[in-house]
TrEMBL record:
It comes from Actinoplanes aureus. This is Multidrug effflux MFS transporter. Its main location: membrane. GO terms for cellular component: plasma membrane. Belongs to the major facilitator superfamily. Bcr/CmlA family. One of its GO terms (biological process) is xenobiotic detoxification by transmembrane export across the plasma membrane.
Length: 442
């Protein structure tokens, strides 16, 4: 066989770990992205990374400002948390709408239109006179961010395949993990020299820069011959088929409920640590970053765990441990035992368990529908953000404090655990999942 490169055939990916069979084929058998000059390929990957970061930045950058917004707009904490819910709703529905649209009309038009909507909504947020207008505009921000995330992932699939795609997806997932750490820190710095409205100025500028970079760098990656023609009926039919799979739906709910525990922390932590424990906006940003480090560290450690245990074993163990740490968090918060450390330590432990659960539930769910991976992924993302949107305002409705946050965090983990063991029934998962686990451990 002539000299060439090793390519990946028959690969299966679970959080960056792929079991592969490789063979050498001629070097001209490359995916479209690999045929691009190195400099241009680097620029495309860089812009895709910025697009992927837009959603986390939009969600998290204004978190340190939530108490200030509550005071400035003369409203309640629960009402302000609905603005976070609005963003999550936009992200959820945006994925369902924009994903199929980009399959039908191409990638560039939905992408640029979506980011333009994000920029316009961000500018209008600067001048929002009341909470109702701010909440509406946050929904539009979420829709624009959804376009960026969905189309970026679709472009990766268009340009790369095999190992090249797996490696790039891993890098983009790292961006998704790092952005939530940096966003509140940047938001805290912005609040150090301006008001909460300045955060939206920064988001508008970031969105505009990303839109210009996308327009200049990213090509149309889906040719007319590759576009879907099934229309709305075909999309609805695909989604309907997914809802008939009990195990898939159960795993998606597990992922969504774990996300609910995470967003209970996201929506309530600024009030708990700033109002209840007297932290400054900058101190809160550092504490929030600490929780995010534990979450991301767990997702990376999951790769090592998969070499010894199956995804369902890791998922079940992390959910049970999360419930246990949630009980400790609730008891210490309710009895005010241990002060700040009594809340922070068990809370960070719960977030670590969420970090182990979040990659394994989607991996098991998506492995069931390889023939419709894009649609299955869109539905998964929509339900995750949708459940998170419901969880976010619950903390404020229960009273905003540490106990309220602990109740929702514990409730999300408990519900996820019950769904996993009673609906998914991990011991009855198809043999394909066990084969996948053996491949990963080999």
């Amino acid at each position: 066989m002539p000299h060439g490169r090793k390519i990946l055939v028959g690969w299966r990916l679970v959080e960056g770990v792929a079991e592969t069979r490789t063979l050498t084929e001629p070097a001209d058998d490359l995916s479209p992205g690999e045929l691009l000059p190195l400099g241009r390929r680097f620029r495309i990957v860089l812009v895709l990374g910025f697009l992927t970061a837009l959603g986390p930045l939009t969600i998290d950058m204004y978190l340190p400002a939530l108490p200030t917004i509550t005071t400035d707009l003369h409203t309640s904490a629960a009402a302000v948390q609905l603005t976070l819910t609005g963003t999550l709703v936009g992200l959820a529905f945006g994925q369902l709408l924009i994903g199929p649209l980009s399959d039908a009309v191409g990638r560039r038009l939905p992408l640029l239109a979506g980011v333009a909507v994000h920029v316009l909504a961000s500018i209008l947020c600067v001048f929002a006179p009341d909470l109702a207008m701010l909440g509406t505009l946050r929904v539009l921000q979420g829709l624009g961010a959804a376009a960026a995330a969905v189309v970026a992932m679709a472009m990766v699939r268009d340009l790369f395949d095999g190992f090249a795609a797996a490696r790039l997806f891993s890098r983009l997932m790292l961006v998704v993990g790092v952005a939530p750490i940096l966003a509140p820190t940047v938001g805290g710095l912005v609040l150090g020299w301006t008001s909460w409205r300045g955060v939206f100025v920064v988001l508008a500028a970031a969105g505009a820069a990303i839109m210009v970079a996308a327009a200049l760098v990213l090509p149309e990656t889906l040719p007319a011959t590759g576009r879907r023609s099934g229309g709305v009926r075909g999309t609805v039919r695909d989604y309907g088929r997914l809802f008939t799979d009990r195990v898939y739906v159960g795993l998606v709910l597990v992922a969504g409920l774990a996300m609910a525990a995470l967003f209970a922390y996201v929506s309530g932590s600024s009030y708990v640590f700033q109002d209840e424990y007297g932290m400054s906006e900058q101190q809160f940003a550092l504490v929030f970053a600490g929780g995010a480090v534990g979450l991301i560290g767990a997702t990376q450690f999951n790769v090592r765990l998969l070499r010894r245990w199956t995804p369902q074993q890791i998922l079940g163990g992390s959910l049970l441990a999360g419930v246990g740490f949630g009980v400790v968090l609730l008891l210490l918060a309710a009895t005010e035992t241990g002060g700040l450390a009594g809340v922070l330590i068990p809370l960070w432990l719960v977030l670590t368990m969420v970090g182990l659960a979040m990659p394994n539930a989607p991996a098991l769910a998506l492995s069931r529908h390889g023939e419709a991976a894009g649609t299955a992924a869109a539905l998964l993302g929509a339900i995750q953000f949708g459940v998170g949107a419901v969880a976010a305002p619950l903390v404020g409705m229960l009273g905003v404090g540490a106990v309220a946050m602990a109740i929702v965090v514990f409730g999300g983990m408990l519900a996820a655990t019950l769904v996993f063991f009673l609906v998914v029934r991990p011991h009855r998962l198809p043999a394909e999942h066990r084969r996948l686990s053996r491949l990963v451990r080999a």
